[in-house]
């Protein structure tokens, strides 16, 4: 019996599972087997049950006859998906940028999904938390207003309904907003938002309808333990979890968010493949005020500075940040939405703090103070007075240095695909990403050019 080489790197902490690299073992009868836990076979195995992983599974199920397994160390919505604000906005996107077409395609697909829910006689608000709130990108200076006027022109030329609101028009749209002499806003009435928990539950329920046909299975609370490579082709042949061995006939897809870099590092560590996926966790806080009646909003809002917020720089306007914050590249910008349950959701922060998910009360204070600069009613309330209705969401956004997700096959492992690095845009780009990945696996024409998101040239 010929034995295959085996690689067992050190365990990776704070990841969805400890990834190892194995190879198939050939017997004298030329049969291939995996020694270990119970064995099951699927066409596609997806690692990660966030919004990206689940929508990829959904796309395979409705767009092909392939069988799909979804694996996660925890449960859906336990990562960045569940911690987000839920907006599907185009107002802060830039036409002509490398992510624009993917964002626009996803925007269209979300609209189509909401319409399909209505066609089933269901209420998109109840099923998805879907509301067409419209979005406002708010300026406070003359320079910001000039930039927003140009943005409105760009958005309109790109096919979106967009308009610039003067100070007086903005006051009419959002009476609770502090409006100064130079204030204005870019307004996209068609922008919407979702409730991530409801949306994920809806997608899961739809996916599970394929279980009875033998086409779908979930393996939650079952971290990945190892990856098995075929000794003959070099492709990934199976995923081994702590409780199961899942053979893949067609593709293995890593939709593992901010853990993707460390997982891929362990996977190829002692192989001939050169791969460095520079995804980093970028921590974010959101402040949720439940049953809060002191402030009501008509639309979703964010300050104009949020457009630059996604770059890893410290915002000088936050004067009370400590000097030690600079090493974390901490930034805070105002975002404000009302969720499907009527709760006020305020954000948002960005910082590099590793995989730490502990609440930082000083950041919550910054978020509250920043929101108070835009909404006078909030500045009149001490943060301590709302402790009984306050909740905090913490999420780790999967940050890529070039601002683009990585979507595509790994060179040298043609059936291994990555779909990660969407940073704060995972929900808004999920359906377009899912469509792109499935088209790649099935060899179908792409609706959106995938070249800007390729692994080659960015990660190897």
Automatic annotation (TrEMBL):
Alphabetized UniProt keyword annotations: Oxidoreductase
GO MF term set: oxidoreductase activity
Annotated signal sequence range: none
Record domain FAD dependent oxidoreductase: where: 43-440
Entries under Gene3D superfamilies matching the protein: D-Amino Acid Oxidase, subunit A, domain 2 (3.30.9.10), FAD/NAD(P)-binding domain (3.50.50.60)
Any one GO CC term of the record: cytoplasm
Keyword Cell inner membrane in record: no
Domain of life: Eukaryota
Summary of the function given for this chain in its UniProt record: Required for the assembly of the mitochondrial membrane respiratory chain NADH dehydrogenase (Complex I). Involved in mid-late stages of complex I assembly.
UniProt protein name: FAD-dependent oxidoreductase domain-containing protein 1
Organism: Quillaja saponaria (Soap bark tree)
